[in-house]
Amino acid sequence: MWLPAGVVAGAIVIGVVVEKAWMKAPPIPVVVNDFEKLSPPGKSKEESYSAYAGSSSCQPCHEEEYQLWKGSHHDLAQRSLDPKIDDRAFIPRRELRQATEILRKSGTNYEAAIADSKGASELFHMEGVIGVSPLRQFLVPFSGGRLQTLEASYDPRSNEWFSVYANEDRQPGEWGHWTGRGMNWNSMCASCHNTRVRKNYEEGSDAYHTTAAEAAVGCEACHGALKAHNDWQQQFGKSGQKDPTLPKWPPARVVDNCGFCHARRGDVTGDFRPGDDFLDHLTLEIPDGTETFYADGQVREEDYEYAVFLGSRMHGRGVGCGDCHNPHSAKAILPGNWLCMRCHNGSYTNAPVIEPVAHSHHKVFGYDSKGAQPSTDLMAYQARVVKETGGECVNCHMPQTVYMQRHWRHDHGFSSPDPLLTKELGIPNACNRCHADRDSEWASRYCNEWYGPRMDRPARGRGRAIAAARKNDPSARPALLDMLRTNDIAYWRAVAAVLVGPWAAEAPVRNGLELGLSDSNALVRIECIRALEPFTGMAGVTDALTSGLDDSVRGVRLAAAWALRSNLDFSSKAAKELLRSLTINSDQPAGQMLLGALDMARGTPAQAVEHYRKAVEWDPSSAAVHHDYAVVLSDLNRGREAVEQLELACRLDPTNAEFQFKLGLGWNELGQTAKSIESLQAAVRLDPGQARAWYNLGLAFNSIGRTNEALEALGRAESADKSDSRSPYARATILAQMGKLNEANAAARRALEIEPEFGPARQLLRSLEMMSKEQAGRPEGK
């Protein structure tokens, strides 16, 4: 820990409120698809799935729907290898240079000969395929019941093999290598490519016994178990009675059914069934301080559609997945603008009337120059194979991004392009995605000419506020608090809660978040709890969070239980649900880290260290894992080991200012002041707004007599965070030591302006006033 700044007049000891060397590691979001056992040990697969009948049982009564499903992406989501389909990919043999893989068929076996880093080749047999188009991935069996997904993937459109990692050079032992846990089918793929998957992971043996009701996304993946329905129909189907086996779900639950697979999410129960509330079983990743989403909400990394759709005006107006997609074929109901014009033709009150040509200022096939539909019939429209013209609604409002090297996906946020945000914040816009030879100034000129004041829509201000929050700019707070209070779309209220959280030490922010705990939407309540979690030591926060333990939605209860884990009654319902959710995710590094954090909170550090050690072993290339392991080691006074882990974290992620900051604190605890200063200077170079790093750098400089540099660093800390009373107080103590009593007095008063009850600053001010009086009464020259 840092030493006090010094002693004034040889009598008054002035202590500096120092930075706690090791902040508690923030909870790591669970972002894997995990499952639990459906039935008690000892039951056979047949007994576990006795309520399921299989998709083929639906065909006799639902022939049309069955034929739409048959051969669809859902039907072919997972299958065994089939010579009629797959021989083309393996004959003649192929070679993938990026991964040094040879793909071939030998007899009836489909094989991959893969070279290791030393050039030795190992032969693997493939047992399954996931996906159909635009790419297929192949499954290889490993010990412990594992199936792993090969790096080599196949594009059936071009008849080409390619590396799904592109130019990344992932090495054996890494989490994301094809042999690692990041490419494990049991945990990461199975649930969305099959029906009613049970992962059945055994932590003791680190093995899987994964099962599924059906190897495909079958009828029961969306409708639930149907054997009871079949039995009732056989007995009473012609009676005219209402079938009691078929519950009617509200529209939100239907969208949640799609979201189970089409979301970037984590599983907390392993027990989601059609008709369930998404947040009763799953966590959802939404825009936060990371770059997963652009600041305006557009998708940047893979999101699988659901989250951004929740943030769209379409969803806000009641549009569901089935309004645009056939639920059985999963294809769009109509092609091109025909689909959008089903609603935007004046037939729906909530949908503004759009004339495609006049609105887009681009030509649109199927419409004349005045925007009226010509006599061209729908079949002719469907038959015409042309590149989409600029006037297609989806080109502007659902821009595409490519994932997994070959899969172009539409953004389902239904946003409007804003070239001004491209210029200001680097957010892509649909205009320049197509007109790549032009710049954002050119696009802005046309947008302003065509749409005028309408370009200054609320989404622009929202994007600016989110971008500012990601830079820790306090100017974002008012806009985020307003969004949290007033936005009519719950998704954006939740995003505001996430991003305003770092300022929850301030009463207005904290009050806004506490008010959000009673929001009608569970996602908002969850994110408000998470934002308040680091401040449970502040008056009233713990009491406010406790109400979440009895919330009607499990996701809220889990968030509250995690936030209050240090003092949780582990016999309570919420605590049992928390333990269950962590156990389900124990096969992944993130799950082990959460278990370790819980053990630290419960006072069992030896168990915690084992969990973190396992997480590092499973994901050695993750800087965040090393960082959080270091936090635990430091809490256990194992400072040397903690520094070693932080050095690894900094090497793996050399641009992370927080890691450099923690390394600086670690070196200080070991008495290595010079190395501490070096790391703290690296932190502020990487992030000049890192107030805590500036503060500790100032104390470090002062400890070795470099007072001018100390004052400069403390001034930077004060500028970076005007709400922290420690920086002006520390500056006041140094100025007092230097005999600059007037400047010290002003700095101490500034500390009290920020925190009126700051006792040490008040004591210092009294001492300074006494010293000033003594100087005033002292004869000149004495």
Descriptive report:
The chain has 782 residues and is of the alpha+beta class. Among the domains are: 45-233, no CATH class; 247-312 and 470-587, Leucine-rich Repeat Variant. Strands 3-8-9-10-11 form a five-stranded antiparallel β-sheet, with no helix packed on it. Helix 28 packs antiparallel against helix 29, helix 35 runs parallel beside helix 37 (759-777) and helix 36 runs antiparallel to helix 37. The longest helix has 19 residues, at 759-777. It is globular and about 110 Å long. It starts with 5 loop residues before the first strand and ends in a 5-residue tail after the last helix.
Number of helices: 37
Order of strands across the main sheet? 3-8-9-10-11
Principal-axes geometry comes out as: globular
What summary fits the major beta sheet? 5 strands, antiparallel
Low-confidence stretches: 1-42, 367-388
Radius of gyration: 30 Å
As a percent range, the share of helical residues equals: 40-55%
Number of strands: 17
Distance between the termini: 39 Å
Strand content: 5-15%
Mean pLDDT: 89
Judged by helices, strands and strand pairing, the structural class is: alpha+beta
